[in-house]
Amino acid sequence: MMALCLLFFRASVVSGECLGDQQSSLLQLKKSLVFTTNLSTKLVHWIEDVDCCLWDGVTCNDGRVTGLDLSDESISNELDGSSSLFRLGYLQKLNLAGNEFNYSQIPYQFEKLKNLSYLNMSNAGFAGQIPIEISRLTGLVTLDLSNTNSFVPLVIESPNLATLVQNLSELMELYLDGVHVSAQGGEWCLALSSSLRKLRVLSMSRCHLSGPLDSSLLTLRFLSIIRLDGNDFSGPVPEFFADFQKLTSLSFKACGLTGKFPEKIFQLPTLRMLDLSSNVLLEGFLPEFPPNGSLENLWLTQTGFSGTLPHSIGNLKMLSTLDLSDCNFNGSIPSTVANLAQLLDELSNVSSYQLRTLTLAKNSLEGSIPASLFSLPSLVTMDLSYNKFSGQVDEFPNISSSPLFYLDLSNNNLEGQIPMSLFDFQGLAYLYLSSNNLSGSFKLNLIQQLINPSELDLSHNELSSIECYQPNSSLLFRSNNSLALKLAYNRLKTFPDCLRSQSNLIELDLSNNQIHGEIPSWIWKLPILTRLNLSGNHLVTMEESFLNSSSLVYLDLSSNQLQGPLPVLASHFSYLDFSGNNFSSTIPANIGSFLAHAFFFSLSKNKLHGSIPASICNGTGLLVLDLSANSLSGSIPQCLMGMCVTLKLLNLGRNHLTGTIFNAFPSLCSLKLLALDGNQLKGELPKSLANCTKLEVLDIGNNHVEDIFPCYLKNISMLRILILRLNKFYGPIGCQEPNATWPMLQIIDISSNNFSGKIPINGFPSWTAMVDAKERDRSEINDLVFYGTTGGPAPYRLPGNRYRDVIKVTLKGLLFDLVKIQTGFTLIDYSCNNFEGPIPEEFGGLKLLYILNLSHNAFTGTIPPSFGKLSQLGSLDLSSNKLTGEIPVQLADGLIFLSVLNLSFNQLVGKIPMVKQFTTFSETSYEGNRGLCGFPLEEKCGVSPPPAFEGTHSNSRNAINWNFFSVELGFIFGFGIVIGPLAFWRRWRIWYFTHIDDICFRIFPQCYLRKEYGRRQVPKNQGRRHYRHIN
Fold first, then answer.
1. 466 near 492, Cβ under 8 Å?
2. Does 98 score more than 50 pLDDT?
3. Strand, helix or coil at 350?
4. What is the annotated signal peptide range for this record (predicted)?
5. What does the pLDDT look like over 516-564, one tens digit per residue?
6. Tell me, which fold does domain 836-943 have in CATH?
7. Per-residue model confidence as pLDDT tens digits over 167-208
8. Least enclosed by CB within 10 Å: which of 396, 430, 969, 1018?
9. Vertex 305 angle, CA 304 and 309, to 5°
């Protein structure tokens, strides 16, 4: 089609002077169109004094206009049906593509242009139903109505596709990409095959077509190009596609294809391009390719293709692009890949056909990387990342003339030193060697061999030092290109001093090394340094402040040992992370004036004290604010709630904040995470929190909040973590509203409160993330990702920054900090409340549940047998309740992954099941149940106690057993000494209970009533309970 465009419209073909009526019609057309003068290349030059056949975009024959090209003329008004365009009756070729006709309908007056053979209105801003009048242009050879750039679609509904094309028997090229056709396979396939027998190009991507693909398409025997990307065929590719004898290009990208792909299609002798990418359920193998194959471009990325790469792949000597990334290929790279370089020797004039792009990333390929790959003379891009390649990369000679621009060998198992030959690729701009086992030293001066280096990533290796040749040389980088240098997660112990004079550094990442001491002053003087990451080292001080660095916008100094007061800030930073240090001052009162452009600000895990300044609310662009794990006191500034229109993550947890949580969350609240845990906040949970409908994590644990269960949060459909533990919540937890709540919920911890009543069952079915694996995967709780922009005339998006918050959960009686919640982690903790009644059978429907803790309540009845359906359960704690009956054998049969079990201190009876996991638990899992017997308890099942001896001595009727008498006297005497003062002496009573509690905490440090959380209310209806560590 592009060749036709160039043929028809590159220049005006003049045959005689332009006829007056033709010129008049064109001038009227120009006058009726609204276009941007400085963007126009044709209309702006139409001048009345010049023959119209000489105008740009106009083609004439005998003075009559036969071709008109107004593509990309920035036309922005509707095309009226009365337009003079429709008086150009001799038009044969018309191109209106790339304009914006204001989402108007295609005028039906196009039927007047009966001589049209070429009509291109692609991405022209038309919308709505395509008129039936198009079908009356029976001479059309090429029709392009593609609509891929518009939010308002073109549609083919009434008339349908069959009606639209029924008269277009001369059509050879049909482009309807992005047009809403919405037809079943049999319908659209028959519509095309019955009318368009001469069709050579069929392009109907993203047309809402569905399958199955019908064999009637075979009647289109001239088809050369088939492009059907982005439709939902949800089925296999039929083998009849191998019968298209003229097929050169076949594209089924992202079509929901399934099953095995027919190998015969690969072997079509005419096939040059095949794109099956983004069909994750499509399987297949690469066949043996015949000699001198014609395939030029092959994309299989993100499919289920597997097996080894065949040696015959070297037969594809016309290959230009090979993308097999994100598949399941294994084995090694065949040595025949070197054959893809032979074409230059045989046919030097067609070297453009040689392999230019090789992408094998994200497979399971192994072995060594063939040195011959680096000798492919036309290779521009090579990506072998995320495989299992191992060994050393050998040095390779004679590659200075190679055009290699992008090389990614990251995330493999490569060893040894970095090969110096890599830096002989003078045109190499992007080199990624991260996440390997490369060791030794790296000679930084090698970079000067590259003409335009842009990014060098050596992170996550075992490099021990950076050798600096000519330490103060400013010629280390000889280009004007800015360079990003990443050396994170190595074993460096000092700052590479040769970087002090390198003015081209735009990014420097030295994070997570072993660098000690102070940050050198020269690092703040690098003139264009924009991003600096020194986190995860052992830095203690800075030679001087970074206030003088005018270019720096991203600064990460987290997880070091920096101390003293907070450094003086500058107002141009976008990202500031000082977390995990030893800063020990107050937060400056004017902190907000330095956050004008910041989107990320973290001071967590320091030793800061004092109050939170109200000026922090001047950071109106903040997306993340983390002041957690300090010693901040006072109340939460009310203005922080107002910031939640833009603020995504607010973490003030683990401080000493007091007062209430202001009921001031805005109606357009954007919060995704709110963590206020571990403070001394009181009052009620604010009702305006319901405005935060995007909330994913809510952690109010370990405070003094006194309220009922927050049913008003039920409409927060994205909620994944709800933690209310260790507060003063009370009352039932049932919500009267019938609507489903929290379908993505993975963690709910309401332990150690005063909740009461029965457990409601109406909410369980709606927790689909605990029921359905697909929903669970959708609601995966990974690090929350956010993006920010720097200000200025040319804003750019900083690379994705990940934020991690700590969530505390109770397991085996211990509090654990979860930094990252995995996909499968689900938890329900209702322990240490006043719940009563039977445990609902409906718990058994939460088949993806991993931890369930209902201990220290007043549940009665039996253990539900449905618990045996919780096949993923790893921890079950039902201790310290009033459960009766036997342990259901279904638990032992079904809970095959159970590693923690506590059924102690109930009223269970019968034999302990000795099946599967239940054979591994100790007696502490069952103690306090007098009716239980069997291993591991000492009480044996089915053995009656020996009968008491009833025989007496003839003289024993009046005898006294002085042994028993002495025991009774001792008991009475001791009881009086201890209990007497308790009953009548108040001071002794207070002293006794205080010290007995202290002794209990020392003996059982892992009990649920931890001393550090002494503020928790013990449920009133259970008295003094047993709290034991679960082994």
1. yes
2. yes
3. helix
4. 1-16
5. 999 998 998 899 999 999 999 999 998 777 666 778 999 999 999 999 9
6. 3.80.10
7. 999 999 999 999 999 898 889 999 999 999 999 999 999 999
8. 969
9. 150
Tell me if 657 sits within 8 A of 632, measured CB to CB: yes
Alpha carbon distance 463, 513 (integer Å): 10
Rounded CA separation 410/389 (Å) = 10
937, amino acid identity: L
Predicted confidence (pLDDT) at residue 352 exceeds the cutoff of 60: no
What's the rounded Cα separation, in Å, for the pair 357 and 406?
10
Residue 855 pLDDT > 70: yes
Evaluate whether 634-780+801-817 and 836-943 have a shared fold. Answer: yes
Q: How many CB atoms lie within 10 A of CB 974?
A: 10
Tell me the one-letter amino acid at 56.
D
Contact 628, 657 (CB under 8 A): no
Which of the four CATH numbers 3.40.50.300, 1.10.260.40, 3.40.309.10, 3.80.10.10 does domain 634-780+801-817 have? 3.80.10.10
Q: CA 150, CA 251: separation in Å to the nearest integer?
A: 22
Length of the chain: 1031
User: What residue type is assigned to position 1021 of the chain?
Assistant: N
Round to whole Å and give the CA distance between 512 and 514.
7
- 864: its two tokens: 């539900």
As beta bridge partners, residue 94 has: 68, 119
Euclidean distance between CA atoms 839 and 888, whole angstroms: 14
595 contacts 619 by C-beta, under 8 angstroms:
yes
Can you read off the two tokens belonging to residue 507?
């990014």
Angle at 832 between CA 827 and CA 835, to 5 degrees: 90
The pTM of this model reads 0.81
CA-based nearest residue to 865, from 895, 844, 838, 835: 844
Lookup result for tokens 């938890």: 827
